[in-house]
Amino acid sequence: MEQDSQKKTNSTTLEVSLNALAHNLGHFRSFLKPGTKTMAMVKAFSYGSGDYEVAKWLNRLGVNYLGVAVTDEGVDLRISGITTPIMIMSPSFDSYHDLIKYKLEPELYNFSTLQKFSEFIQQSGIDKYPVHIKIDTGMRRLGFVNEDIDELVDKLKEVKNLKVESVFSHLAASDDSFHDDFTNQQISDFKKATERIQDILPYKFMRHIVNSSGIERFPHAHFDMVRLGIGLYGISPTYQDKLQHISTLKTKISQIKKVKANQTVGYSRKGKTPHDIKIAILPIGYADGFNRKFSNGVGKVLINGKLAPIIGNICMDLCMVNLTGIDAKEGDDAIIFSEQNPISKLAEQIGTIPYEILTSVARRVKRVYLH
């Protein structure tokens, strides 16, 4: 069944397989002990895959929590009808009203956020509002550091209007065995910190530290919940062969033309034609998320089973490919990435990571959901 939930008419589309999403969720769940909960990360427009449709599907699949970066992402999901608990990982001070209005649960990562949110909750006359405490065990981003734990314990004793739903941390290099000693030290430090916090709270809270690769490689650190991000969308450094590709970015050939030898193609005349060639013009450019670094032969698109290299610079809304030797006509599909032309390969071509390729697909690109 095909579900086109976004009424856009451009010919560039991102097809998202919800069945593949379910398969990937099942793969990671196979590592978990019964009762271990799952938080699915749907920040950044579900890693470019679309927020509401993916969140709704994950809700049907029984995930326990959704994770987003900023409050507006959570608000959009609530307005769309998503009722699953949602954790906000980077809440701003001026979003507290919306946090409460839409029943969103903030991450508190230092004494300032703890104090300010507690005061806001007290002024609102609310009791036992759910929050999540972030511990920095080595990522060196947001979070209370080890030297803060004693003071944090004292503060948590004082704030009676907040209820700690979870205490969590983030692994810095769980995908790389070279750093396993560091990762295990992070896990050990996290365990000690959470035990100290648990000793002073009169109720149980959840603990979670592992991400997608951590789920696969560190089963002793699953604790009460795991956070599933890039793995859900089909990327794993450990079990790539067990996952399914969920996304296909494609467009259609707008025009085919012949270009004679010793001509140039595109901006700054970067595309050179040492001999007569045939080119196809595609209605996709860097404003759609097709990175300009793929210009001038670095990137290739799949047309009728053959790879056609980019010629010239990628434009804002268009790009050109060398179609010489490929049997194609105007209106044929051109695949930017798919199972046959995987995101990981594209990421290598421009020296980045699959996350950036996925999350760069612009919202103006129509999403089509297949299941």
Q: Which helices and strands appear, and what pairs or packs with what?
A:
Blueprint: E1 2-3, E2 13-17, H1 18-29, E3 37-41, H2 43-47, H3 51-60, E4 65-68, H4 71-79, E5 86-88, H5 96-101, E6 105-108, H6 111-124, E7 129-134, H7 149-158, E8 162-168, H8 180-200, E9 206-208, H9 212-217, E10 225-228, E11 247-252, E12 255-259, E13 264-265, E14 271-272, E15 277-282, E16 300-303, E17 306-309, E18 319-322, E19 333-337, H10 343-349, H11 354-359, E20 366-370
Parallel strand pairs: 2-20, 3-4, 3-10, 4-5, 5-6, 6-7, 7-8, 8-9
Antiparallel strand pairs: 1-20, 2-11, 11-19, 12-15, 13-14, 15-18, 16-17
Helix pairs in contact: 7-8
Strand content: 15-25%
Stated plainly, the CATH topology of the largest domain is called TIM Barrel
Which oligomerization state do the chains in this entry correspond to? single chain
What is the number of domains?
2
Using the alpha-carbon principal axes, give the shape. elongated
Mean pLDDT: 96
Biggest sheet statistics: 8 strands, parallel
- Looking at the overall shape, the CATH architecture of the largest domain is Alpha-Beta Barrel
**Measured distance between first and last alpha carbons:** 5 Å
Report the structural category. Answer: alpha/beta
Question: What's the CATH superfamily of the largest domain, by name?
Answer: Alanine racemase
- The helix fraction, in percent, is 25-40%
Number of strands: 20
Q: Which strand order does the major sheet show? A: 9-8-7-6-5-4-3-10
Report the total helices.
Answer: 11
Uncertain regions: pLDDT < 50 for 5+ in a row?
A: none
- Radius of gyration, taken over Cα atoms and rounded to an integer in Å: 24 Å
CATH class wording of the largest domain: Alpha Beta
